[in-house]
Design goal:
The complex is a heterodimer of chains A (116) and B (115). Chain A has no helices and eleven strands. With 116 residues, chain A is an all-beta fold. In chain A, β4 and β5 form a beta hairpin. With 115 residues, chain B is an all-beta fold. Helix content of chain B is 0%, strand content 52%. Chain B is built from no helices and twelve strands. In chain B, β5 and β6 form a beta hairpin. Classes of the chains: A mainly beta (116), B mainly beta (115).
Chain lengths: 116, 115
Amino acid sequence: NAGVTQTPKFRILKIGQSMTLQCTQDMNHNYMYWYRQDPGMGLKLIYYSVGAGITDKGEVPNGYNVSRSTTEDFPLRLELAAPSQTSVYFCASRQGLAGGPTDTQYFGPGTRLTVL
Amino acid sequence: AQSVTQLDSHVSVSEGTPVLLRCNYSSSYSPSLFWYVQHPNKGLQLLLKYTSAATLVKGINGFEAEFKKSETSFHLTKPSAHMSDAAEYFCVVSDSSQAGTALIFGKGTTLSVSS
C-alpha cells in the first residue's frame, strides 16, 4: 500500500490564482481530512469527510472547497489564492471503525504552498 | 471542548540523557490521546496512542507516555536520547464531539539533541 499520497509537493501561486491539491488513499478508509500547518503551530482542520459524497467544515474552512466523489480521493480546492493561505497542507485518513476516536490517522507527506 | 497544551516549545538534551516532553489535556470525558513526530520537511508519524486499555503506553523508537487522569497529563518520555530523535513532537487529542472525530493538535515541542 502506498498509504496517503499528495500532489504536488511544492507550489507557488500568485494572488488570485486557483489550484487543486490532490489527495489519494489506498487503504479503503472512510474518513479523510485536510489540515494546514502554519509556522510554529500545530495542525488545524480545514475540511473533513466521513465517506463518499459527505463533507463538512472544520475549524478554518474559509477560502477552500472540497469534494469526495470516491472513497479514495479527497481534493482540496483554492479558488482565489491569498497570502494568508501560504502554509503546508496535510491530508489524512482513518478507517472509521466502531473504536472511533482511537483509530490512527495516517498522514500524507504534505504540500508546501506559497502565495505571492 | 477538548484541547491540549504542550508546556514547552523547545527542549534541549544531550545524547544519552532522558527526554521529557510535557502535555496537559482538557476533556469533558475520557479522551483519546496521541503523540506524533515530525522530522524536518517530512510528514507526521504516529509515535503512540492512549486507548484506555493501559495507562502506560509504549510506542516506537523507545518512547512511552503515561496517562494520568488526576493530573490531566500525557507526558512523553524516553530513557536515552539519540541524535535521530531531534524533531518536532505534537501532543494530540481526538475530538469525539465532531462527527468526523478530527484531531486537535498542540502547538508542538521542538526537541534538540546535542552530542
